[in-house]
Design a protein that fits this description.
about 0% strand; mainly alpha
Amino acid sequence: MKLNILVFTVLSIFQITIVNAQKSDNRPARADIEAQKIAFITSELNLTPQESQDFWPLYNSYRSDLQKLRKSEKMIRAEKTQAHKPSEKELDAAIKQEFANDRRKIDLDEKYFELYKTVLPISKVVAFYQAERDFKRELLKVLKERRDQGRMRSN
């Protein structure tokens, strides 16, 4: 029961913060979303201070590595679209590069899964992945509601 109240409270705070933390383009600031994500995951995992101290630097390192990988993917996509009419060979190479990036993403996930297990019990590692999915689902729900409300106001 206490857990349900805690989750409800965190989600409510999350929703209020997302609604209030707006940029001029009417989207929540990335830093605000990341702060809410950290609070949500910490709450869901019930991390001890030591676990938190050990886990979050690993997670931040993962996010940094993932961001580098995504930049690489973005550059590949840009190269594909820059060519006015890519040749068959160029298209083939581009698709193979996307497969290679997918493999690198899987390797990255596996690497950090092993690292997470060094600082958290496996039950919390599993709970972490679930909490990440739950956070994304909740964020998408809030953003969809905001988008729908904006449409209703403009009609």
